[in-house]
Amino acid sequence: MTMHHLQGRPVIIGGGIAGLITALHLAPEPVVLISKPLLGHESSSVLAQGGLAASLGNDDSPDLHLADTLAAGDGLCDEAAAKRVVEATCQAIDHLGRLGVAFDHAPDGALLLGLEAAHSRRRIVHAGGDATGRELVRALTAAVRKTSSITVLEDVEVRHLFVEGGDISGVLAVRSSEAIQLSTNRVVLATGGIGGLFEHTTNPLGSFGQGLALAARAGAELADLEFVQFHPTALDAARRPMPLVSEAVRGEGAVLVDERGRRFLADTPGCELAPRDVVARAVWRELGAGHRIFLDARLCLGSRFAERFPAIALLCRGVGIDPSVEPIPVRPAAHYHMGGVAVDGAGRSSLPGLWACGEVARTGLHGANRLASNSLIEAVTSAAWVAASVAAASPGKQSRLKPAIVPPRPDVSRIRPIASPALGIERDGQVLCEAAKALAPIAVRHDAASDPALVALMMTVAALRREESRGSHFRADFPVQHAQPRSQRLRLEETLEAAAILADTTSASEALLDRRA
491 and 378 in one domain? Predict the structure, then answer.
């Protein structure tokens, strides 16, 4: 494929909400949007049932939204970054409406506002009841298709970022067996999360953190990788990824019970709407004690369940469950990554020419634990700031890219059995050490499992370094919190050096020296 006419344009990697809206904000500047699947398919954005948190109610304010966000973040939010996001939410909802997103409205025309865990007010804006992500992707994809300045490359996977003189100089991608090289000094990562590293996940199985691997191997700094949010109520069935039973169901009054009908969260502050890490750990411990766990919506919704949550009702019926008359079997599943590429307020990484937006970025909004429905609104608000920064950056002189060996297509199947127990809801130092020893040699082999292994290794090293329990990171061997929490930043070199020390071997260090040569 000849791609010369696309050289020099900003390249956005990822076809979910963050990538789509960043491309739209950059119009009319010509951009290239690269999507691994066809647009509108196989992304976490499409699967998102929850909505967008915005302080639109008469009893609400950005200050209240900020307070809830900081409380959920458990001491690690960047307050200035969080304040900026919550103050931009109302404008973001208006912008999405103008792009054609069909939000849910009350009979009087006002936006319907739902309640989710750890929110002190009803402030969750939905579309299609429990299909908000799908509706956003539909509208944004349609807008992208109509925007002539956006060149979409679908069924294309980016495997490598070129770096020259310490700056981004291009991307290497693959369509089928054909390599594509694009020279550019402006790249935006919008590649989503890491749920595919886990046996139980609500994310597409291919979402293992490819953007994190690309950034790390290029030399960018990553941050807070140890913080993984497990959604407490994924549908406990054989389907993968696991269908999500939205927190909004608990917001309508559904309760968690065991097989005997015991409501085990009744004495927990906030009950079923306590912060997600609290609920997920409670469910995990009940499962570990041999119980089965169910979400019971019979009293609060009953026959109205399918009207309020049509997509969830359909998923339940697909496994033989009628949630109007029987409880839904649930279990926790890896759902959202609070860590990511370390970025500033404009989405710039530590590597010149590389930006990140959406779940792949660590903006400081979420801290140690994401407040429900803050993720979609973060992607939408941050996209505007990222686009403005990219547009203001000089295209510069384009590099003549050297031929490169195309890395193999990533395969995460070998890594899940290692990452799942080590990086789960409850962690232990010894298990983490053993995982790091197993992952390090795979991460430096440059085979199909290397990128997933690298991401899991960096998360494992970060989890080992945080010798406390905070937010979504729980260490059974360090159950208390530090008095003064700090964010953690990590680079590839530090990761390999730490792994070499853990393994008491020089193999990882030798591999690092080979890379530098």
Answer: no
